[in-house]
Design goal:
It is a single chain. The longest helix is centred in the C-terminal third of the chain and has 25 residues, at 374-398. Strand 16 and strand 17 (265-271) form a beta hairpin. The protein is α+β, with helices and mostly antiparallel strands. A seven-stranded mixed sheet has the order 18-19-17-16-22-23-24, sandwiched between helices. A six-stranded mixed sheet has the order 3-2-1-6-15-14. The protein has a three-stranded antiparallel sheet with strand order 4-5-8.
Length: 506
């Protein structure tokens, strides 16, 4: 038997899965980790921790699957975007990784925006705003605040690059993940030389750029010993986790729209060409894993992460007694009427991205009265993410692309009450996709293409689509959700001045 391996390097966990050649899942596993927050605007994790968790994950997965290491033909990585890792000349990390959620480089982001202007930034990278999330801003921050680290850094890597290096000993990166680095020209398909000059670095301090689904190298003997993999396994470039997700479910054709409620909320709309710059319309348009296509990627900073924070903080007693905190939150939310009796939440617990792009934004519950209890707060969180989804879908439709169905993925898609709320709030049918571990499968597919097992991504994903349950909107809930959606928008607009006025109160 022959198998393919997909790895998903997420924000708070690593996942891996072994698949048969037809895309059926053999076994999967997960390794969670806790991010460090040394200050309110800083989010880090030791780079070595990513590798150690990956080694543990793969060793456990190989035992669980019963698959022999030599039966795995290839692997690739689906990765979170923007997390920055600095390595010295020996390939060792000089400091903890700066996670994409980190907002320390707001001043540097403003300076880069002033230097280049939003139109050029968009036309080079597909990013409509210059925010502290982007790695280029973090490199600028390092040059100013940690000059010794900046000078000693031989390679500035993203997380996928780092894991590929640990697996193969080679420095390689791929075009899709680079789009939000602000270092790469996605239309010219080359490094953005003017940005590198601005940052004072050259291409030698970055990894070699390859297309998605391209061979990088075989697993080294050292990596094989640590992971339990075979040295015959080909490691290949993958893609951004959201892109891998749509590859894994086979929704990669222009006109198809997916939403993923994981740690963050991501809406992916496949388009056949780059969307032109518009000052009035702030959208992200990134290169696709499929050459010649683009993805309109609209994402919101925190989504499932808000629910995870909430369950961990306010369901501690039940969890200690063995209850599933997420299932309990769902059950309680289902007892509350649509609209939460006027309770509205802003879920910006780590700043806001599309379309606000405000790293200073904070989470807020508004409209609290004596009649509100824990179930109301549970439902308010679910509704707040649905409001973010609606706002993103309205932007997609503003491009002239109708959205008939929303295909739902991620951990949030496992919640029937959440899917129903999303359908009601957006007024669109929400259809779940049965493919399990879609990001891992998407990565595995790209690895299989790199190994020559398929001619291209389109042929590789044929037959992967497995639809699940469909949730139709309830017309009787439309009015209350229209009203609360307007309250959601007005609440942010009213509080935006306060976010800037009191930035230290995080």
């Amino acid at each position: 038997m022959a198998y393919i391996l997909g790895i998903d390097a997420g924000t708070t966990s690593l996942k891996a899965a072994v698949f048969c050649m037809d895309g059926s899942l053999v076994a999967s596993g997960v390794e969670d980790y806790v991010l460090l927050t040394p200050s309110p605007n800083q989010v880090e994790l030791p780079a070595e921790s990513y590798w150690e968790h990956l080694c543990t994950l793969i060793r456990n997965l190989m035992k669980k699957s019963g698959v022999k290491p030599e039966e795995i033909l290839s692997l690739a990585i689906s990765s979170q975007g923007e997390t920055l890792i600095c390595l010295d000349e020996k390939g060792e990390a000089l400091r903890p990784a700066i996670v994409w959620l980190d907002n320390r480089s707001g001043e540097e982001a403003a300076e880069i925006e002033k230097e280049f202007g939003l139109q050029e930034i968009y036309e080079r990278t597909g990013q409509p705003e210059c925010v502290a999330t982007w790695p280029a801003t973090k490199i600028a921050w390092l040059r100013r605040h940690e000059p010794e680290i900046y000078e000693k850094t031989a390679k500035f890597l993203l997380l996928e690059d780092y894991l590929l290096y640990r697996l193969t000993g080679k420095f390689a990166c791929e075009e899709n993940l680079l789009a939000s680095s602000l270092l790469y020209d996605i239309n010219g398909r080359c490094w953005w030389k003017e940005m590198l000059q601005y940052l004072g670095i050259d291409e030698n301090r970055l990894a070699k750029v390859l297309p998605c689904g391209t061979p990088v190298g075989k697993v080294t003997e050292a990596a094989a010993r640590e992971t339990g993999l075979s040295v015959q396994i080909l490691a290949a470039t993958g893609a951004l986790d959201q892109t891998c997700g749509i590859v894994g479910v086979g929704r990669i054709k222009p006109g198809e729209v997916t939403e993923t409620t994981g740690s963050c909320l991501a809406v992916c709309a496949n388009v056949g060409q780059f969307v032109p710059w518009s000052k009035e319309r702030r959208i992200t348009c990134q290169n696709h894993a499929v050459p010649g296509r683009y993805v309109v990627l609209l994402w919101s900073q925190t989504a499932g992460m808000v629910l995870k924070w909430y369950v961990n903080q306010f369901y501690q007693k039940e969890k200690a007694e063995g209850a599933d905190g997420f299932a309990l939150a769902d059950e309680e939310a289902a007892t509350v009427p649509a609209g939460c009796d006027g309770l509205v939440m802003l879920p910006h617990l780590s700043g806001a991205s599309n379309p606000e792009y405000n790293s200073l934004a904070k989470g807020v519950f508004y409209g609290v009265t004596l009649k509100h209890g824990r179930p109301h707060f549970s439902r308010a969180i679910l509704e707040s993410v649905a409001f973010m989804l609606r706002r993103n879908l309205e932007q997609v439709e503003g491009l002239g692309q109708p959205v008939d169905v929303v295909y739902s993925m991620g951990g949030g898609s496992k919640s029937p009450i959440w899917n129903s709320i999303k359908a009601d709030v957006t007024g669109k049918p929400v259809e779940t996709l049965k493919t399990r571990e879609s990001a891992c499968l998407g990565a595995a597919v790209l690895g299989a293409v790199a190994a020559g097992l398929y001619g291209d991504v389109d042929s590789a994903v044929e037959g992967l689509v497995r639809s699940g349950e469909r949730f139709e909107p309830h017309p009787e809930n439309r009015a209350v959700y229209d009203r609360n959606f307007e309250n959601y928008l007005d609440l942010y607009d009213a509080l935006e001045p306060l976010f800037s006025k009191y930035p230290s109160q995080a």
